């Protein structure tokens, strides 16, 4: 679930960093602890509360956003895909005004611990004794309302309260956010009744089928999380080789890229040059230009577009399609000299529109 993510999940993503729920695989005990929260079915119908019934789309989103940016909590977080994949992590999250910190430990798969202080992120890989440090502009809040109150959201989605349910022992309002076209997915969200925190989310395809869901199997909303303790952990890189990702803010226009026409509802939100330390290679387009990362959002869903010289690394195929739960990836050779990769929690058709509309302007 790329943008509909708790901050905790967003920082344990893989190298592409647009699929927050690509956490290390979970264990059988974690799945057992999840219990009914991890049924791929929707909520049991119940009478909606008056407050829930009266909220419009932006009111729901603002409530969810505020809860995710203001609550301190500790919990076990589990992600399941319809294909059977399961992943889990342990999260500590704390806030103090505009300052947020969190720690995310993968519970299965290779050991990994990710700590974040606002946009500063460091991931510890103990097996390799490597710590990867970088700056990320997006805080990964659920939802990340850069366009809160924007009437454009109401043109893309509609919200409907569908009842009450319980997740991880908490009463929750259930709201369904439905897209108004086929370019984006829908969501079913369980919002903890008192705080508004999203404690379970399902991503739904255009036919309403659950592609992926994420939920807390255990959650403590009264946890005494110490910010100074997390800061000490984040700063303690002794015994680790620290790798710094080089991100340089830029614009698509400055780098010579643009879209022939916009993809409906999506706006450009950031653009970076990402240095991957690749050695220069011969061949067309194999100059030392770093990878371009251009990110778009419709207010909920996010698409990341990466462009790099084709000759930088071998590509056994001219096009690659990968589907992991709700996250789709399209990679292809573009205009001969470039390798284009698109990643997003959107239908594949949406990624293809971005690829078709991309143009080189210099």
What does this structure look like?
It is a single chain. With 362 residues, the protein is an alpha+beta fold. It has two domains: 7-242, Lipoprotein localisation LolA/LolB/LppX (outer membrane lipoprotein receptor (LolB), chain A), CATH 2.50.20; 245-360, Phosphorylase Kinase, domain 1 (2-Layer Sandwich), CATH 3.30.200.100. The chain is 16% helix and 41% strand. The protein has helices at 7-10, 28-34, 50-54, 57-70, 151-156, 227-235, 252-255, 348-357; strands at 73-81, 86-96, 99-106, 113-117, 120-125, 130-135, 157-167, 170-179, 186-192, 198-204, 210-220, 241-244, 246-249, 257-259, 267-275, 291-297, 302-309, 319-324, 327-334, 338-344, 358-360. It has a twelve-stranded mixed beta sheet. Strands 13-15-16-17-20-19-18 form a seven-stranded antiparallel beta sheet, with helices on one face. A two-stranded antiparallel sheet has the order 14-21. Strand 16 (291-297) and strand 17 form a beta hairpin. The radius of gyration is 20 Å and the shape is globular. The protein starts with 6 loop residues before the first helix and ends with a strand. Residues 1-38, 44-52 and 277-287 have low confidence and may be disordered.
